Each structure stands twice: as C-alpha cells, then as structure tokens.
C-alpha cells in the first residue's frame, strides 16, 4: 500500500499503515493485548503534547501490544554498564570487543530465558530475525512474552526498546493510499519561473531568492560530494547518468547505492538503487543537476559529486526495513571522506533509536546532515518539526513563499527546531514551486514543493560553501550559513536563522 509523501508535490503523512505485515497473534498472550484503538489514542495524546512520539513514553502493555500488532520485532539499543556519552562516541565503539560482546550476550540471555518460559525449544537464533549486530550496538529481537519488556527496561545496559514497525493509520483512506510518488514532465511551467542560461539550461526562479547566481561566480560545488538519502535516483534520467557531466558540468561522478531491504527473516532481499518513487530523483536534481545544454533544470551545486542512496520506499520512515535502511545509509555516507553534505528530505513523527544511531554515527564523522522539517495537508496541521529534523545533530530546513514577510509554504512545518528556510513557492500561486528533474528520460522539468525541496536546495548551498572553503569544518560552514541568513543574530522562533544569502556565505573569510 502506498502512503503519503513528505515533500514532492504532496506531503508527509503523519500516520500510516505498517508495511511489513503483522505477527502471529494466535499465542497465549492474544487476550492480553491492548487494542490498536487504545494504542493510537495513547500515541496521539503524547504527540499532541510533544509533537514527536517516543516509545519511552509507552507503558509496558502498550509497547508490547504495538509490536504484536505489527511484526513482533523490537529494536534494542544496548551499551556496557560503564558506557558514557553514547551520542558522541558511537562511531568509536568496537562491538566485537569482549566487553561489548558481554553486554550484548547478557541482554540476549535474559530475553532467551524469559522467552523459553513460553517455548522451551527457543534458541538465540530464533530471537534474531536479522542476525547478530555487525557494527553498531543495536539489534532487532523477536519477543513474544510480555514479561520480557519490564525486565529489559530495568537494565542499565538498555539504551532504547522500541516497536520497530508499528505506525498509526490515518482516518482518511484516500489520504492513506496517496503517496505523492511519481513526478511527470510539466509542459505548463510559467515562463516567469525560470531563466534560460548558457549553455542552454533552465535556472529555477527560486535560486535568485538566495543569490545563488552570484555565488556561482565564486564556486559551483566542485570537489564536494553530496549524499542524497531518499528513494534512490532514477536510472532513466540521463542528467543523473550519461549527461551528468555535460555543458558546464565536468570532472565529477554520480553513484547509486541501496540500503533498503524488502521482506523479513530469510526472505529479506536488498532492493535495487533505482528510484521507483521519483522523490529522490527530484531532490538530487535540486542539489546537483548539471548545467547542460538540453533545456532541463540546473541544480544549485552543478559541479558537485553525487551519491544517491535508496533507503526508503517513500519518504515517510515507517517500517523496520526503512529505519534500518536510513541508519545504514547514514553509516555508508558517514564512512566516506569525500561526503561533506547529507540531505534527507524524509521523516516521521515517531522518534527511532535505530535512525538516531545512524545520525549520531554520521554526525560524529563530521558530516553536515540536513533534514526536512516536515510537510503535511491541513488535516495534520498543528504538528511542528518532525523527526529526525528535531535532533540537535541535524540541520532542520523548511520552505517559505516569496513574500516580503516570512510566510511558510502552505504545506510546510515550522517551529523552534528549524535552522534555515529556502524560498520555494510563489505567493501568487501555490502550484508554482521550485524546478527540478523528473525520473523519466525527459528534458522537460517539473515543479516540486514542500520542505523536501527546501532541504535539498539548502544542501546545494552548503556544498557551494564547502567547495569555496576546502578543508572547512562543519561548524565553520554552518556559521557561514547562519551569519549570512536574514534573521541573524536573532533566531526566529519559527524560521530559525532564516533565508541564506549564498553569495555572501561563499565569500566569507574563515
């Protein structure tokens, strides 16, 4: 079933159906389960209060029941008893050292002993649908005994214990089945929404609102690699393939990866990196599309390298496979020295320890991680910035209109967690937005909206600043963005530091 999209002409669906099926409820515990209705009421109460839901707020029966209503798999983050400051040290941990093996095995032994009360034939391998952890101190474990939850929550070695696949379902079935995936060439683009520039490309109108054209006199992104963690990038769009080096774009590379699996247990298989949604292709285009001669839309950092990582089916992070996909994509990008900027136009109203571990890892490797603040329809209005843009390790971005005063785009989220904005919507018409590539092998661009488009655009600006200051640290680049934004030195409660002047930022001395 398709879901609602966080950007890309549609919006983030804050509540959706689980993608990975349900667990077998024909167990002795079936009658003990809290109903989905009660679980959803509890979650909505917390979300109304906090904006984001964290499973740490769930009473034991609700946490257990949520997993049983989905796939019975729990995400468990563990640590040694003496571990301190995991957020800053997770990238340094050797989980195969003896002390970490002891911590892992102590947790698994506790679970196994308790699970064997229901099934004496249970083994350790029966608990681990995806095997032992490989490099981060987290694992997915199948639990069917409700008493196991309380025992785990008492242990200081447990960092988090979460139902990895339970999500809320929206009340509106039409919205639930609408993902927003699938962008087509738009042959009715308003002539005032682009300029044709040499050697024959379209420059989106929204570039000028951050003075990107002037910044190009200094840098165009060469020497910097941008990682787009999204739905992949299209094999069909030649501007992200054979024509990635064309016109004024040269000497760079584009690479495709996938960290997204489908299925479960031994049926699980790695999906191909090809974008089957369209969203990732559009975001890659906003950030890095070539300045070619075929009439397509140029990206902001048109000489930057690109790696596109397919981590999700769409950009609502819901299933366990997607959470693991995002985490593993962050590890992949974090381990590459050439990657300076990571752009994630995706999110969820559920905090996830699995995704947090990936963010911590990439952040500790020095990467600038930009995340979309959130996009939604009016039925989900009232929610603020979504996860993982709520994390202090990410740079939260939202979209605004081209109004003289700061007005968010009509489907964009805002709030105190926002760092920067990007203009991407016309005030005179909400259908006129930023221009970008489409997944098809077409040279006709299309409009794309939401905080997704804003995030990928700001990622392009960050790449320009890195390119103009080789060797700069993430803090130096962030400060350049901050100090050349229109609200500096006073951060706005809804729009952060505001709109960045790319030209002034790339020309700063530091």
Q: What are the main properties of this structure?
A:
Rossmann fold; 14 helices; seven-stranded parallel β-sheet; alpha/beta
Overview of the molecule:
The chain contains 14 helices and 16 strands. With 510 residues, the protein is of the alpha/beta class. It folds into two domains: 30-164, no CATH class; 202-506, 3-Layer(aba) Sandwich (Rossmann fold), CATH 3.40.50. The strands form five sheets. A seven-stranded parallel beta sheet has the order 7-10-6-11-12-13-14, with helices on both faces. A hairpin with a 3-residue loop joins β4 and β5 (201-204). The longest helix has 19 residues, at 450-468. The N and C termini lie far apart (50 Å).
Q: What's this model, at a glance?
A:
This protein has 510 residues and is an alpha/beta fold. The protein has helices at 36-50, 60-68, 86-89, 98-115, 124-127, 147-153, 173-176, 212-215, 279-288, 320-334, 353-364, 450-468, 474-483, 502-506, and strands at 73-78, 138-142, 158-163, 194-197, 201-204, 225-230, 254-258, 261-262, 269-270, 305-310, 339-344, 368-372, 394-401, 420-425, 434-436, 446-448.
CATH homologous superfamily descriptor of the largest domain: Peptidase S8/S53 domain
What is the count of DSSP helices, taking H or I runs of 4+ residues? 14
Integer-rounded radius of gyration: 23 Å
Mean of residue pLDDT values: 90
Largest sheet: 7 strands, parallel
CATH topology of the largest domain: Rossmann fold
The N- to C-terminal Cα distance equals 50 Å
Q: Domains counted in the coordinates: how many?
A: 2
Report the CATH C-level class of the largest domain: Alpha Beta
3D shape: elongated
Q: Strand arrangement, largest sheet?
A: 7-10-6-11-12-13-14
> How helix-rich are the residues, as a percent range?
25-40%
Strand content: 15-25%
Runs in which pLDDT lies below 50 for 5 or more consecutive residues are: 1-28, 171-179
Structural class: alpha/beta
Number of strands: 16
- The succession of helices and strands, N to C, reads HHEHHHEHEHEEHEEEEHEHEHEEEEEHHH
CATH architecture of the largest domain: 3-Layer(aba) Sandwich
């Amino acid at each position: 079933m398709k879901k609602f999209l966080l950007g890309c002409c549609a919006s983030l669906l804050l509540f959706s159906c689980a993608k990975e099926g349900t667990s077998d409820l024909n167990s002795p515990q079936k009658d003990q389960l809290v109903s989905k209705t009660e679980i959803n009421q509890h979650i909505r109460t917390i979300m109304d209060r906090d904006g984001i839901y964290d499973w740490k707020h769930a009473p034991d029966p609700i946490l257990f029941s949520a997993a049983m209503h989905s796939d019975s798999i729990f995400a468990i983050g563990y640590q040694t008893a003496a571990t301190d400051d995991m957020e800053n040290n997770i990238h340094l941990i050797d989980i195969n050292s003896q002390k970490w093996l002891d911590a892992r095995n102590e947790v698994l032994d506790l679970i196994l002993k308790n699970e064997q009360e229901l099934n004496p034939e249970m083994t350790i391998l029966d608990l681990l649908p995806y095997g032992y952890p490989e490099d981060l101190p987290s694992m997915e474990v199948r639990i069917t005994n409700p008493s196991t939850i309380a025992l785990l929550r008492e242990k200081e070695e447990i960092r988090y214990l979460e139902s990895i696949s339970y999500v809320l379902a929206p009340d509106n079935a039409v919205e639930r089945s609408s993902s927003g995936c699938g962008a087509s060439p738009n042959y009715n683009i308003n002539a005032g929404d682009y300029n044709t520039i040499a050697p024959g490309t379209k420059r989106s109108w929204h570039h000028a609102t951050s003075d990107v054209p002037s910044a190009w006199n200094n840098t165009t992104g060469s020497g910097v690699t941008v990682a787009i963690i999204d739905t992949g990038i299209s094999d069909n769009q030649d501007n992200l393939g054979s024509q990635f080096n064309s016109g004024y774009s040269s000497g760079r590379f584009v690479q495709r990866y996938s960290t997204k699996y489908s299925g479960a247990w031994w049926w699980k298989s790695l999906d191909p990196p090809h974008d089957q949604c369209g969203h990732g292709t559009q975001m890659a285009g906003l950030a890095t599309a070539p300045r070619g001669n075929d009439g397509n839309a140029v990206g902001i950092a048109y000489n930057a390298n690109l790696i596109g990582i397919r981590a999700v089916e769409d950009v609502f992070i819901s299933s366990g496979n997607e959470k693991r996909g995002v985490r593993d994509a962050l590890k992949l990008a974090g381990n590459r020295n050439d990657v300076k900027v990571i752009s994630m136009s995706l999110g969820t109203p559920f905090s996830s320890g699995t995704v947090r571990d990936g963010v911590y890892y990439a952040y500790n490797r020095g990467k600038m991680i930009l995340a979309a603040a959130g996009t939604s329809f009016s039925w989900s209005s009232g929610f603020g910035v979504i996860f993982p843009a709520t994390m202090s390790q990410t740079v939260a971005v939202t979209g605004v209109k081209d109004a003289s005063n700061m007005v968010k785009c009509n489907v964009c989220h805002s709030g105190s967690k926002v760092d920067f904005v990007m203009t991407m919507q016309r005030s005179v018409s909400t259908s006129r937005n930023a221009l970008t590539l489409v997944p098809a092998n077409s040279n006709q661009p299309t409009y794309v909206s939401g905080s997704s488009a804003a995030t990928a655009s700001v990622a392009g600006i960050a790449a320009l600043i890195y390119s103009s200051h080789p060797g700069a640290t993430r803090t130096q680049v962030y400060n350049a963005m901050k100090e050349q934004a229109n609200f500096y030195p006073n951060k706005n409660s809804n729009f952060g530091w505001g709109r960045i002047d790319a030209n002034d930022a790339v020309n700063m001395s530091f």
